Amino acid sequence: MTTVAAPSLPWGEVWGQDEAVETLRAAAADPGALAHAWLITGPPGSGRAPLARAFAAALIAGPDDEHGMRQVLAGTHPDLTALRTEGVIIRIEDARAMAARSYLAPSAGRYRVMLMEDADRMTERTSNVLLKALEEPPADTVWILCAPSDADLLPTIRSRVRVLRLREPEVEQVAALITARTGADPAVAEQAARHAQRHIGMAQRLATDEASRRRRDETLRAVLRVRGIADVVEVAGQIVQAATDDAKALTAERDESERASLLRTVGIPDGSKIPPAVRAQLSALEDEQKRRATRSLRDGLDRVLTDLQSLYRDVVMLQFRRDEGIINLELVDDLRALAAAWPAERTLTVLDHIAETREALEQNVQPTLALESLLVTVVSGRKP
Question: What region does 35 belong to: left with phi over 0, alpha with psi -120 to 50, or beta?
Answer without folding.
Answer: beta
